[in-house]
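stage 2 :: seqdesign
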């Protein structure tokens, strides 16, 4: 029953994405990827990291719909939708600061100090994403962030982001 409710909420949220130039319905690739990565909402930090690692390691196969080795804005938005779906652990369409923090650090019962990111740093990131100062994040907040990061990674301004561009940006950011 919980899984059916979770799927219904995710499917409903996927309609918020609007029109897409992709050959499939908006959110379809992201929902499929999330179900493969984590059929149930991650309960521990280890589960969340495993699901996130799965999405990252298979992102070209999962989200490059036309298999050209570059991401269009719509394909990039699918990747961001998958992140939102994983973060939205309560499956209610709203990501509270607590859910956001747990997505990075795991539930309170599971936190270890080795990879723990301070709540103040996570709150600052959360607040930057919460443009309407609602106290929670929506798929629209993630989509806005997706387009900002897409433009940042599109270093040659051709409307496509390649793995090489992402690596160059990541290397330069260090």
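stage 2 :: out
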């Amino acid at each position: 029953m919980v899984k059916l409710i979770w799927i219904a909420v995710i499917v409903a949220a996927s309609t918020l994405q609007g029109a897409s130039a992709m050959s499939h319905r908006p959110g379809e690739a992201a929902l499929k990827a999330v179900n493969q990565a984590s059929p149930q909402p991650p309960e521990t930090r280890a589960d969340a990291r495993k699901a996130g690692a799965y999405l990252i390691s298979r992102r070209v196969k999962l989200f490059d719909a036309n298999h050209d080795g570059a991401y269009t804005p719509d394909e990039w938005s699918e990747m961001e939708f998958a992140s939102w779906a994983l973060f939205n652990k309560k499956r209610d369409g709203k990501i509270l600061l607590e859910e956001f923090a747990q997505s990075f650090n795991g539930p309170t019962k599971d936190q270890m100090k080795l990879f723990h990111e301070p709540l103040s740093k996570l709150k600052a990131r959360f607040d930057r994403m919460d443009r309407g100062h609602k106290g929670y994040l929506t798929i629209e907040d993630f989509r806005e962030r997706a387009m900002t990061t897409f433009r940042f990674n599109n270093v040659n301004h051709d409307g496509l982001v390649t793995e090489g561009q992402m690596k160059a940006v990541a290397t330069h950011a260090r």
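stage 3 :: structure notes
- Residues 22 and 98 are 33 Å apart (CA to CA).
- The chain has one domain: 2-173.
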